[in-house]
Amino acid sequence: MKIVITNTKGGSSKSTTAFQVAAAYFLAKKLDVTVYEFDDENQDSKVFNKSLIKSEQMMVGDGREISSLITPIILDKAKNAVLDIGGNKTTTLFIDALKKSRMSIGIDLFIIPMSGGSQDLQNAKKTYDLIKEFNKPIIFCLSRSRSKPGDNRIFFQYGKFFSDFKDANYFILQDSDCIDLSRMLQKSVFEIAGDKKTKESLEGDLVKAFEKDDDKRLTLAQQMIYVSDESEVFSKECLLPAFKTIDSILNAKK
Fold first, then answer.
1. DSSP class per residue in 125-171
2. Please, what is the average pLDDT of the chain?
3. In 124-159, which positions are buried (b, 16+ CB within 10 angstroms) versus exposed (e)?
């Protein structure tokens, strides 16, 4: 299966969506997955070197060779892949390459991440217009949300989106400290939520700090345990509903 994460705007939570949602979706199904980052400057997933999620940076350059990068990934039908596309010019180059190579035939799903700002909405619209002609399922990720899935207050932050995309498929990626913790622990929030060994290790650090009267270390361990607990809630209330949305869209395609 191949999932593409794209938005013409940089800084729209593409890499967070790619790693924390799309790639974790495969982990939830006990499947291997590789994140391919089409970005010359950033390799966001390299910090997650303790994760089961594999990653590889794809250098785009001037875009002349981008079709030769895309084609082998798409043709490897046995491999699950998340293609995380850099913003701005990289998005345009990638979509043009999909058109010219006809490799959109192997894409199962597009996800467009966006936050609540008006500029993000404009770029989400632009991205939607660029990819809708591929006639593939599209889901919007409403990222950095102040509201949980199911909370109607989401309409305060994303009212214009719901007005402009009345029948759009979407899921919510709530803003949370556990996303920052996942960077510190070098694995996805989904993995942390089910990782009893990590929590036991943090609890062990707290005990040692207490015994040595190391208040600074104790406070750090305490905060990390708190956010680790929060990861379990985040996984249940945010990630699992997102996975369910992805499943429903992909199953409808069959």
1. HHHHHHHGGG---EEEEEEEESS-TT-TTHHHHHHHHHHH-TT-EEE
2. 91
3. bbebbebbeebebbbbbbbbbbebbbeeeebeebbe
Contact 84, 5 (CB under 8 A): yes
Q: How far apart are CA 114 and CA 248, in angstroms?
A: 21
> What Rg, from alpha-carbon coordinates, does the chain have?
19
Query: Residue 50, Cβ neighbours under 10 Å: how many?
Result: 12
> Which tokens in the block code for residue 39?
């970005």
Q: Is 43 helix (H, G, I), strand (E, B) or coil?
A: coil
In whole angstroms, give the CA distance from residue 62 to residue 219: 48
- pLDDT value for 252: 84
Query: Domain boundaries in the chain?
Result: 2-176
- pTM, two decimals, is 0.92
Which residues does residue 113 pair with via DSSP β-bridges, in sequence order?
A: 141
For domain 2-176, give the CATH superfamily: P-loop containing nucleotide triphosphate hydrolases (3.40.50.300)
- What tokens does 80 get? 């699950």
Question: Which H or E run includes 181?
Answer: helix 177-185
Q: Which residue's structure tokens are 């622990």?
A: 185
Contact between residue 49 and residue 186 where contact means Cβ atoms under 8 Å apart: yes
pLDDT single digits (tens) 189-208: 999 999 888 889 989 999 99
Local structure of 215: helix, strand or coil: helix
